[in-house]
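#help-structures
NK: newbie question, is this the right format to request a structure? protein is UPF0149 family protein
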Amino acid sequence: MHLDEPLSDKEFNELDKFLMSDRVGDDGMTMDALHGYLTAIALGPEMIPMSEWLPLVWGLPDAAEPKFKNEKEMQRITQLIARFMNEIQITFEVAPQEFEPLFCVLEQNGKELIDGETWAWGFWEGMQLREEAWEAAWESAEIGPLLQPIYLLGAEEIEEEELKFVDTPEKCHALALSLEASIPAIRRFWAPLRKSGVTTVKREAPKVGRNDPCPCGSGKKYKACCGAEPTLH
């Protein structure tokens, strides 16, 4: 199975069943939390290796792994999560307008309302992996306000005076809609700044021209001294 193939419904349910099992921790991520978590990692300020973000998915003490039945099951579940991440990344790259958060829906007084708290919590957890780097977004006059619904719905703790913004399902529904609408702008903010994690070597000294005096002090031109082509034997 190629890692760039989206999960089928059967595979989605397979991963969902594993994450809901007692082999992961009480703080382990459900599918909607995982989708929010991976979304934050996929569009955030820099690439994060799977080896760093995967342990938080399980929600186990001391970053422990689940009790897989065998090596084959471990590889299978890990591959499904990797493909779930790739699906998000490919959507952002190829058809960002088609991206949709994996929100839950609840029925309240005969109306269907979006429950985005678990997704937002996952996104918030993804932000915490690079909390300092995300400060640039918080300080942006354009993006800072767009992060507020994520904070209100997903943060472990909010200020007491902010509870009035999330004290009814209807208010949380409105915040979830606002959150969804903000994702494209958040992605555009980070896209040109996103770091790959690969260190770029900066040349401190100016480049020496081939006809310039060699910096070694020999008095010869650079091309006839240290810049000479090596001789092949």
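mod (FA): yep, format's fine, and the tokens are attached above. The first strand starts at residue 104 and ends at 108.
NK: thank you!
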